[in-house]
Amino acid sequence: MPFTLATWNINSVRLREGLVLQLLKAEAPDVLCLQECKSPVDKIPMAGFAALGYSHMVARGQKGYNGVAILSKLPIQEVAANDYASLGHARHVAGQLENGVTIHNFYVPAGGDKPDRAVNEKFGQKLDYLAEMRDDFAANKPQKAILVGDLNIAPREDDVWDHKKLLKVVSHTPVEVDALEEVRQAGDWVDVTRAHLPEGRLYSWWSYRSPDWDGADKGRRLDHVWATPDIAPQSHSSRILREVRGWEQPSDHAPVFATFDV
Questions:
Q1: What is the mean pLDDT of the chain?
Q2: Which DSSP symbol is given to 144?
Q3: 211 pLDDT band (50/70/90 cuts)?
Q4: Residues contacting residue 54 through CB under 8 Å, at least 6 positions apart
């Protein structure tokens, strides 16, 4: 059963409900994973999504911060919602489709401004979160699974606009990149996006601070689609919808897509 999946940090699902509806109408993915929903689950505006066929949802939310949701045309059952690093944040939910594929939706902590846990508690929380993800996947090897979300790390040199300038900037520091690679290896995850688009600069996030985000193009690939080796070969058609970053009152992230013939 082929299905298309998208992941998008929406930066408030209630504020940007119209943009979600616009994407669903234009692209019609079977599954849409949202991060930074900034809403309690019961306040997520499901009526409009359901009217377009997205009648299924698994989610974790909280008022004003964090939050993850999986909207689906296909029946989906919640199978996990882990509080890594015991932060008490709504940053993970996992659902299983009827074909047995488990989808993990993550919003990894951003990590603050200074890449030093001695002076920046948020950076330490980020590293602890990644370490617990690693340990969990090592102890419970995932199978027939997809991991998506805003992982808040751009791992490759061509995942950022200037590798050397960003080596000391949170999201591209060596300690973060190494930590994310340990997570990937622990679960034997395949970076699906880069498997399909192996060459060249590739971004999914552009700062609000840039007055000309498109022209300056100082982006980073913070949003990811991974899959376990048993289904990664059945994936194809990865793409990032860059133009969505230019929609009216946009999120600072663009959606990332992939299709799986599973």
A1: 98
A2: S
A3: confident
A4: 24, 32, 46, 71, 72, 73
Q: What are the residue ranges of helices labelled H in 52-173? A: 121-139
CATH numbers and ranges of domains, the chain: 2-261 (3.60.10.10)
Instruction: Give the closest residue to 260 by CA, choosing from 241, 233, 240, 239.
Output: 233
Residues 96, 75: Cα–Cα separation, whole Å: 8
pLDDT for res 1? 78
% of the chain exceeding 90 in pLDDT: 99
pTM above 0.85, yes or no: yes
Q: Decide: 117 and 171 in contact? Cβ < 8 Å.
A: no
> How many angstroms separate the most distant Cα atoms in the chain?
49
- From first CA to last CA, the distance across the chain in angstroms is 5
At residue 103, the 3 state secondary structure works out as strand
* Separation between Cα atoms, residue 216 and residue 23, nearest integer Å: 25
**Token pair listed for 189:** 């995850």
On the question of pLDDT at 65 being above 90, the answer is yes
170 Rama sector, left if φ>0, alpha if ψ -120 to 50, beta otherwise: beta
